[in-house]
Amino acid sequence: MILAQTFAQKALARASGVTEVSVGTTVDARPDRILSHDNTAAIAKIFSQFGLEHVYESEKLAITLDHAAPPPTPLHARNHAEVRKFVSDQGINNFFEVGRGICHQVLSEEALILPGQLILGADSHTTHFGWMGAFGAGVGRSEAATLWATGELWLRVPESIQVTLSGALPLGVSSKDLCLHLIGQLGADYGLYSSVEFDGSGVSTLSIESRMVIPNFMAEIGAKNAYLPPDDLVFEWLSVHSNRNDKQSSIRENAIYPDQGAIYSQAVEVDLDTLEPQVACPHSVDNVKSVQAVAGQKVNQVFLGTCTNGRLEDIAVATRLLHGRKIANGTRMLIVPASSQVLQAAIEQGYITTLLEAGATLGTPGCGPCMGNHMGVLAPGDVCLSTGNRNFRGRMGQPEAEIFLASPEVAAATAVAGMITDPREFEAL
Known about the structure:
It is a single chain. The strands form 5 sheets. A 5-stranded parallel beta sheet has the order 4-3-2-5-6, sandwiched between helices. A 5-stranded parallel beta sheet has the order 16-15-14-17-18, covered by helices on one side. The chain has a 4-stranded parallel beta sheet with strand order 10-9-8-11, covered by helices on one side. It has 2 domains: 25-271, Aconitase, domain 3 (2-Layer Sandwich), CATH 3.30.499; 278-425, 2-Layer Sandwich (Aconitase, domain 3). The protein contains 14 helices and 18 strands. The model has no long low-confidence stretch (mean pLDDT 95). The chain is of the alpha/beta class. The protein starts with 6 loop residues before the first helix and ends in a 12-residue tail after the last helix.
């Protein structure tokens, strides 16, 4: 008799070719997609030590150049050249050049992973793909090299945490505020090596782009993966974006849902109606306060972007708030779209013109300032409000700077005021 299974159990059972798995056991999982980015060159050096000429399944690899794009130094440029050579030598088709955008956004737009599938990536935010009901997990470089060589990897089946959402987000509040609320209440290590599985009527009230924020950010509580149940909105979105002309019916058939009666290690309930704008204060992502508690904090730089919040919906929010206004003197605003598709759509909608007229600066689609490689590196004493996912000391390249994390709504309001501001004060919402 098969016992009731969580999403994580079902997904890893499918990926390992068995009917069921138990929490805590180890499985030999075969991912549907293997992700890497600028770190591909370093992984290739490890792979070369295996004495193999070719990767096991080149069609499963997806590689982007996004973390230092365009390359800010000769060393970064050499790294990119090595990645391009590896891609050519291995015949890897799913390669995305400088400017295409952030790996998680790009693979979503290309529909290179689908509901119920397993993606393992050499990036901690591979949890991102839970927005569509896929199992996404980050792995190390040695593990990625092993995947290239063998096509499989040992994974322990994680315990699952159930997060039930009810209600709908109020005006001026976003799914980023939900994430900040959760991590503020639960702590940065609450979900260590757990599967964070969302359910409840509140999920269906969220747009596709706002859903993408949630599993991405769950990496910050240590989650192995995160999951939102896919619905018709997801199936339609993926069908439209698929270059393989995947039909909604076939995408739907492979979706995985947890069983009624599945056992969860913890259960959390959140009423979206009650949420308010949140801010994570320096220097910890779980140092979360309400926007009212930190309102008035002067800010030198506002950064709108990253794999968490660099999508068209986020840029649209900023456009509404900045329309007819100017960014405050003494404050600069940097906007980095998550992908070339996002940038193109923002241009077509007229968003970019409005933002430039307000005084914002535009960066190349990619990761940009998020990890302090280039574009928007902070100076000593600078205060930055970012829509990113990490704010530990030195994250944006300067240990003597402070980083606050917040939603695109708070970011835009802060850029106008020059200090952390509650976006609900603006009628443009």
